[in-house]
Write a structure and sequence with these properties.
The chain is of the alpha/beta class. It contains twelve helices and eight strands. Helices cover about 40% and strands about 15% of the residues. Strands 1, 2, 3, 4, 5, 6, 7 and 8 form an eight-stranded mixed β-sheet that branches. It binds S-adenosylmethionine (SAM).
Length: about 290
């Protein structure tokens, strides 16, 4: 991705959330308050003008997205399911004792900002590329800082997650954590994804979980997003955020195990494909030497 330009895909996800606020049926799926918070963040950060946001929040825009649904069938609604999935994972994880939430490649996601006041005993961390994180920080400052929300501007391709978090005074090495990697891993090179999951296991205590979305690999070895895969792969490249990683669902168990995680499909609450993505959860189980039990 372009180092000095805020993420276009993060911007697109945020605009889709705003539009989904008017799509019939989505009010039952979208987490409460997300549409309003996303609109505010887009404007306060300067990522979008008030006119763009107003235009995005119209029935006309719902129709525009629906007209383009043939390219990535079901993907607009999938963003609502993805947000709901991640928020459920965070709430479930906190319910089981997590004291930290780490959102990787957070973009203009508002989960941390919305949930931080509800869970004052939990610290929320977000990491994103400096170009995007800086805009986000400006927006959050204007919307109202949260004492337990920490925005970190780092390129995870250049600095190891372990080192990034070591530099944070608030991060607890032994804290139970919920890690969210939503719409992120498809944009990283394969070796970076493996490295990232490995690093996540290094920074996580027993009982932690990682929730993520991924694009499955097709029979030709490329990310498979359906009939228009070739066009979509090309378009992603053109916008400067190519899809570079995918995995076959049947290979996920082994991949996670090799990275220090245990696939936990029972916790995911869904095995369905939403749009072009699958949602997954993995947990950190105790090893023979650990005294803590789950
Ligand atoms: C598709 S967006 C998803 C944003 C957010 N997770 C959501 O779903 O609303 C991908 C995000 O990952 C971030 N990202 C990609 N590569 C990164 C890297 N090497 N280090 C930090 N952030 C990165 C981008 O800046 C962007 O905000």
């Amino acid at each position: 991705m372009h180092k000095n330009r805020p993420s276009r895909t993060a911007y697109k996800v945020a605009l889709c959330i705003v539009t989904l606020g008017l799509k019939s049926g989505m009010e039952k799926i979208l987490p409460p308050g997300i549409v309003d918070a996303t609109e505010k963040l887009l404007v306060a950060s300067g990522a979008a003008t008030p006119t763009t946001v107003r235009w995005t929040h119209t029935q006309r825009m719902v129709s525009v997205y629906e007209a383009f649904d043939w390219m990535l069938p079901g993907q607009l609604e999938a963003f609502a399911h993805r947000k709901a999935f991640c928020e459920r994972q965070v709430r479930d994880g906190i319910g089981e004792g997590a004291t930290q939430v780490l959102v990787l490649g957070a973009g203009y996601d508002t989960l941390g900002w919305r949930l931080a006041p509800e869970f004052p005993g939990v610290n929320f961390f977000e990491i994103d590329h400096p170009a995007t994180a800086r805009l986000k920080a400006k927006g959050i400052k204007e919307m109202g800082q949260r004492d337990n929300l920490f925005l970190i501007a780092e390129d995870l391709g250049e600095r190891k997650l372990v080192d990034v978090l070591k530099a944070s005074e608030q991060w607890r090495r032994n804290g139970r954590t919920v890690i969210i990697a939503e719409g992120l891993v498809m944009y990283l090179p394969p070796e970076a994804v493996r490295e990232l999951f490995g690093q996540c296991s290094e920074i996580s205590a027993v009982g932690s979980r990682i929730a993520f979305s991924y694009i499955p690999t097709g029979s030709d070895g490329r990310p498979d997003v359906g009939r228009w895969t070739g066009l979509m792969l090309w378009l992603q490249k053109v916008v400067g955020e190519p899809w570079t990683w995918s995995i076959r669902p049947e290979e996920l168990d082994l991949f996670l195990e090799e990275s220090g995680w245990t696939n936990a499909p029972a916790l995911a609450g869904t095995t369905a494909k939403h749009g072009v993505e699958f949602f997954s959860v993995a947990t950190m189980l105790p090893t023979a030497g650990d005294s803590e039990t789950l």
